[in-house]
């Protein structure tokens, strides 16, 4: 699906990403993790073609990502940004229909196929019943489902999400990730998500890419990377790893605050 080789990116003459190498497998559900300022959002913008690296290669389905035009990238890669701003009070249907923009001929406008794809995307995210409501009337969880539906309307092969559960309560966090997992399993949609909650990541994601200070500190399964020593080296927090009583997955219990302090 996507290979990243020897990727470097700098901002204001400072290296914010350096020597990044990894592979996103088709149909996988992966998570980019790491402390604040480690380069997660910058990396996501590069994977989506918004930013170009100063060095290195990204191959998408066997071709250099930046050999695609912006419109072609948008047909294949959809992004759900963190805290997406909505400047006009569109209806939910209008918002999701915007996802068809890369596919629509500007002179002919949307056709029956476009409307059918929009309806399917709304059905997959549980937003069909919201179609005629204004975005300003929605809760945070409802808005996030609509933004995901808009991304699905692009018919992407790769879905990138930047902290999609920020500011959502536990119920809506699980609701969003249940939707993403279902899309991943039922549609074989490749999903990559930035997340801070390691336990939530371990519950849903198959593979972790852990960034630290602009480098790829580790990559592997939750079973391998939810490790007390590794977490302490990256986050500076003492933790204990136990088994979740229902899923059996590794589960993190924080034990201390800060690098040297005892709770």
What does this structure look like?
The protein is α/β, with parallel strands linked by helices. The protein folds into 2 domains: 2-225, 3-Layer(aba) Sandwich (Rossmann fold), CATH 3.40.50; 228-263, no CATH class. The protein has helices at residues 40-47, 70-76, 92-97, 112-124, 140-152, 170-187, 198-204, 222-225, 228-235, and strands at residues 2-11, 14-24, 29-33, 55-60, 63-64, 77-80, 158-162, 190-194, 207-212, 215-220, 239-243, 250-254. The protein has a 6-stranded mixed sheet with strand order 6-7-8-3-9-10, with helices on both faces. It has a 4-stranded antiparallel sheet with strand order 2-1-4-5, covered by helices on one side. It has a two-stranded antiparallel sheet with strand order 11-12. Helix 4 crosses helix 5. The longest helix is centred in the C-terminal third of the chain and has 18 residues, at 170-187. It starts with a strand and ends in a 9-residue tail after the last strand. The mean pLDDT is 93.
Please provide a brief summary of the model.
By secondary structure, the chain is α/β, with parallel strands linked by helices. 32% of the residues lie in helices and 27% in strands.
Task: Give structural attributes.
alpha/beta, 263 residues, Rossmann fold, 12 strands, six-stranded mixed sheet
Major sheet characteristics: 6 strands, mixed
Second rung of CATH, namely the architecture of the largest domain: 3-Layer(aba) Sandwich
The top-level CATH class of the largest domain is Alpha Beta
Which fold name is given in CATH as the topology of the largest domain?
A: Rossmann fold
Order of helices and strands: EEEHEEHEHHHEHEHEEHHEE
Structural class label: alpha/beta
Q: Which consecutive residue ranges, at least 5 long each, have pLDDT under 50?
A: none
Question: What count of helical segments does DSSP give?
Answer: 9
- Give the helix proportion (percent range): 25-40%
Distance between the termini: 44 Å
How is the quaternary structure best described?
single chain
Rounded to an integer in angstroms, the radius of gyration calculated over CA atoms is 19 Å
Name of the CATH homologous superfamily of the largest domain: P-loop containing nucleotide triphosphate hydrolases
Which strands sit side by side, in order, in the main sheet? 6-7-8-3-9-10
């Amino acid at each position: 699906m996507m290979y990243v080789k020897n990727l470097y990116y700098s901002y204001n003459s400072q290296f914010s990403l350096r020597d990044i190498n990894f592979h996103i497998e088709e149909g996988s559900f992966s998570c980019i993790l790491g402390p604040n300022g480690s380069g997660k959002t910058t990396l996501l913008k590069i994977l989506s073609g918004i930013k170009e690296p100063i060095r290195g290669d990204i191959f998408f389905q066997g071709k250099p990502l930046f050999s695609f035009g912006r419109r072609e990238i948008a047909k294949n890669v959809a992004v759900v940004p963190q805290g997406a701003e909505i400047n006009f009070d569109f209806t939910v249907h209008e918002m999701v229909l915007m996802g068809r923009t890369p596919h629509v001929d500007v002179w002919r406008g949307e056709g029956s196929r476009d409307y059918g794809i929009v309806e399917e995307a709304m059905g997959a995210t549980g937003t069909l019943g919201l179609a005629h409501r204004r975005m300003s009337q929605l809760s945070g969880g409802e808005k996030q489902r609509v933004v995901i539906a808009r991304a699905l309307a692009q018919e992407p092969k790769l879905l990138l999400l930047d902290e999609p559960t920020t500011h959502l309560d536990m119920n809506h966090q699980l609701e969003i990730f249940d939707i993403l997992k279902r899309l991943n399993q039922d549609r074989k949609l490749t999903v990559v998500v930035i997340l801070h909650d390691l336990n939530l990541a371990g519950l849903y994601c198959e593979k972790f890419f852990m960034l630290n200070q602009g480098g790829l500190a580790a990559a592997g399964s939750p079973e391998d990377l939810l490790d007390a020593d590794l977490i302490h080296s990256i986050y500076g927090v003492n933790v204990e790893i136990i088994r979740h009583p229902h899923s059996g997955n590794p589960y993190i219990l924080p034990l201390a605050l800060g690098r040297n302090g005892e709770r």
